[in-house]
Amino acid sequence: MKSLPVSYRLAVTSRVLAALFGGYLLAALASICMSLWLPMPRAEAVVSGMMTSFLVYLVAVLWCFASRSAWQAWLGLLVPGLVLAAFGGLGYWLGQA
User: Fold this and answer.
1) 36 and 95 in contact (C-beta within 8 Å)?
2) C-alpha distance from residue 37 to each of 7, 44, 82, 93 (Å)
3) 45 CB-near residues (< 8 Å, 6+ apart)
């Protein structure tokens, strides 16, 4: 039986790590942004953000395995993560004033 090349194994491992950790980080950032920016009472915004974070995590995992390369998977999580982190930081900063 012929084994798979090491480069393929590393690419799959990178996608799995991106899906697990990058997806979790993206979902957490989306939850934080929604709880800070939704125009509703704080408790309802937090619950809505937490419920939506499950969908964000699902889409992130699907993205990681649907992209053409592991680099594209990581980049597809990094760019929205930076945008969400900026909006989360801005919401936190404006909320402290």
Assistant:
1) yes
2) 42, 12, 16, 12
3) 34, 35, 36, 38
Asked whether the predicted pLDDT for residue 97 surpasses 70, the reply is: no
CA distance 45 to 20: 25
Nearest-CA neighbor of 26 among 53, 52, 63? 53
User: CA dihedral in degrees (45, 46, 48, 49; nearest 10)?
Assistant: 110
CA distance linking residue 60 with residue 65, whole number of Å: 9
* pLDDT on residue 96: 54
Q: Does the predicted model carry a pTM greater than 0.85?
A: yes
**What share of the chain has pLDDT > 70, as a percent?**
98
